[in-house]
Amino acid sequence: MEIVHVYTKRRNEFGRQCNFSDRPAELHVDILPDPSLASNFIERDPCDVPIQCTQEMSEHEVNTERFESDTRGINHVEGGWPKDVNPQEMEQTIRFRKKVEKDEHYSSTIMQLGSNMEHCIKQNNAINIYQEYFEEEEEELVEESEEQPSAKTINVFRDPNEIKRTATCLSWHPDGSCKLAVAYSSLGFQNISPDMSYDSYIWDIENPNKPEMTLKPVSLLVCLEYNPKDSHILVGGSYNGQIAYWDTRKGSQPVEMSTIEHSHRDPVYKVIWLQSKTGTDTFSASTDGQVLWWDIRKMSEPTERLVLDPNKKGNLDNALGAISLEFETTMPTKFMVGTEQGLVVSCNRKAKTPAEKIVCTYSGHHGPIYALQRNPFFPKNFLTVADWTARIWSEDIKESSIMWTKYHMAYLSDGCWSPVRPSVFFTVKMDGTLDVWDFLFKQNDPTLSLKVCDEALYSLRVQDNGRFLACGSQLGTATLLEISPGLCTLQRNEKALATAMFERETKREKILEARHREMRLKERSRSEQSKDEDTKEGDGEESVEELATRTEAEFYEIVEAELKKRAKEQEKKVRRD
Amino acid sequence: MSAEVEETLKRIQTHKGVIGTIVVNAEGIPIRTTLDNSTTVQYAGLLHQLTMKARSTVRDLDPQNDLTFLRIRSKKHEIMVAPDKEYLLIVIQNPSE
Q: Is the link from the previous residue into A368 a cis peptide, with omega within 30 of 0?
C-alpha cells in the first residue's frame, strides 16, 4: 500500500524561497490495527535478542613454515700472508717470521704482553675460581627444599591421518628411550570406518612432525611392545585377534603373523615378552578368555594355551575375558591376568595340568581391570586400575585390596608404577587428567593432578628412568611429559617407609580377613543350629526374585532415610540462620 | 733483546697447565706457536676476529676505554688473549689440573 501525498504548485512559483508557516497538525494517514492479522503470529515469550556493543574483531592463526637448519663447520685456511710470501713454502714463511721477530717493536710488545699474561696464568693456578664449593651441602639443600611437584609437556605427537584413532598402547624403545611406538586402534564397537588407516607409528621423540617409521598391520593394532632384549623387534596384537611381529630393519610389513584359526577370537588386549634364553617368547591375552603363548619364530600355532575358566575345567563358555597381563622378569613362573569381570587371576606357568595353572583369584573391582602391574621394588604388592578406583593389593590377602583410592568422577583407564620410586604411581582418567600419586606423602588425593587434554586418555607408559612419561588419548594424540625431579629421585628412607606402610596395611587386612572368617563360621554354625530346630521353615535359599525385591526395598529404605536426614540438616541450617 | 723474548715465551709455556702459546700479528699470521699448524691457524683466525669485536664493543660503550685482556673460559680449558695494536698473544691453559 503506497502512501501518497499530492500537492500542486504554480509554475511561476518554482524556485522561490520557501516561506514556512505554522499550521496545526493534520492527520494524513491512520492505519488502525487489524486484530485478525494477529492470528497469523504466535507470541514468543521470552524473546532472546543478543546485542553487543563492541568492536568486531577476527582471529587469525599463523604458523611459520618449518625452518630447517643445518650445522656446518668452516675450515680456516691460511691467509693474510703478504703478496711476496707463498704460504706453502716453508722457507719463505720461516724467513718472514724471523724478520718479524727481529723487529724491536715486537720485542717490547711481547715483553709487556708476556708479563700481563703471566699474571693471569698464575692467578688461574693459584685459585680455581670456578670450583664448586659446597657440593655435598647443595645436594642436601635440594632435598630439604619443598619444591612443588610439577609436570611439563615436552612434545605432542598427533595422529597424521584424517580420521583420528585412539592411541591404545605405548611402548618405549628399550635402549635409551629415544623412540616411542604407539599403537592406534578404535575400541568402540563397530566403530571402524572403511577409510580408517590401519597404520601404527614409531615416533622419534625429538621430531613430533613426522613419525619415524610406519607399521602396516592387517588389522588395527590394539597393543604393541618392544622386545626388551632386541630393540629392533616389536610384537603387536591386533583387533581381529592375530599376533604379528615386526623387525624395524626389514620394513613396515610384519615379518610374520599368526594364523587366524589358532589366534584369538576377540581383539588382543595385551601382549608381553617373556624371559627366555632365545628372547623370542611372548604371551597374549584377549577377551575371548584365552591366554596364548607364542614363539615368534613359529607363528603358525601357539606353543601353549590357557583358558581362564574360574571353575578350572577349561570350559571356554565360562571363561573370563582377559584385558591385561602382568609378568615380572624376576618371577618367571608366575603371571597375573586382569579380567573384564573385575577379577585378577594369578597363575602358575609351570603347573602340569590346566586346572592347577590357575592358582587364585582376587576380587574387589567392579569393572574391567585395565592395568595390572607389580611394584618394581616390592613384587609382592601389585597395582590394579579399574572402574573408578586404583587399588594396591598384597599377594597374600585374597579378599580385598590393602590400599585403594577414593571413587573418582571419571573412569580410570590406565596406570603404572614409577620405576624409580616405590611409593609413586601414575593413573590416567577418561576426562583427560593424569594423576601422580605418592602414598607416602598424601593418601587421600593425588600429589599432582594435571589436565593433559580435553578428550579421554586411554594409555600411559613411564620411561625407565622415571623422568618422562607418555600418555595416549582418544584422538590419537600422544603427549610426552617430564615430571619434576622431586617425583623421580629416590628420597631418603623411602624404601623403608614404603615397606613399613605395606606391612602395616597387609597386617590390617589380614586381621580383618580373620575376623570375617570367624563371623562367617559363627553364622554358619548358628544357621545350622536353627535349621535343626526349625524343620518347618523350608526356606533354604531365597529365589532370585525374592532376593531382588528384598534388596530393592532395603535400597529405597536407605535412600529415604538419607534424604530425611538431609532434609533435617537443611532445616537446622535454615533455623540457625 | 730477542733472548729475553725467548725466555719470556718459554717461561709462559712452562707454567703449570699451559697447553699452548701463539703469537699472532695484525694480519692474523701466526709468528710464534707451540701448537701444530692447523690448530694454530684456526685459533689465530677466530681469536683475531673475536678480539676485534671485543675491543670495538668496549670502545663503543666508552670511547675512553680500551680492551686490555680477554679471557674465555670453557668447559675444557681457558683461552687468554693479550691484545696489542699490532700483535696478539694467545695462551691456552687448563687450570684445574
A: no
Q: For A232-260, what is the mean pLDDT?
A: 87
The dihedral of CA A157, A158, A160, A165: what is its sign? positive
State the smallest CA–CA distance between residue B62 and chain A in angstroms.
Answer: 23
pTM over 0.80: no
Cβ–Cβ gap B18/A128 under 8 Å = no
- B29-85 tens-digit pLDDT: 888 899 988 888 888 888 988 999 999 999 999 999 999 999 998 888 889 999 988
Identify all chain B residues contacting A124, using CB atoms and an 8 Å cutoff: 17, 78, 93, 95
Chain A residue numbers with beta carbons less than 8 Å from the beta carbon of B75 are none
CB contact under 8 A, A116 and B69: yes
Q: How far are the Cα atoms of A93, A572, B41, B42, B45 from residue A87, in angstroms, in the given order? A: 6, 103, 12, 15, 15
Q: Which residue has the higher pLDDT, A368 or A534?
A: A368
pLDDT, mean of residues A220-227: 89
Mean pLDDT score of chain A: 83
On the CB side of A282, CA atoms within 13 Å amount to 29
Which domains occur in chain A, in start order? 158-510 (2.130.10.10)
Domain span at B54: 1-93
Residue B91 reports pLDDT greater than 90: yes
Q: Contact B97/B16 with Cβ under 8 angstroms?
A: yes
- Is there a contact between B87 and A106 if contact means CB atoms under 8 Å apart? yes
- The alpha carbon of residue B52 is apart from the nearest alpha carbon of chain A, in Å, by 16
The pLDDT value given to residue A75: 66
ipTM comes to: 0.83
A-chain residues within 8 Å CB-CB of B8? 110-111, 114-115
Q: What is the tens place of the pLDDT at every residue in A557-570?
A: 998 998 888 888 88
Domain CATH number, residue B26: 3.30.450.30
Measure CB to CB from residue A110 to each of B18, B71, B89 and give the nearest one.
Answer: B89
CA distance A264 to A237: 10
When divided into structural domains, chain B yields a total of: 1
Cβ atoms of A223 and A168 within 8 Å: the answer is yes
For residues A281 and A270, what is the distance between their CA atoms, to the nearest angstrom?
14
Provide the shortest C-alpha distance from residue B56 to chain A (in Å): 20
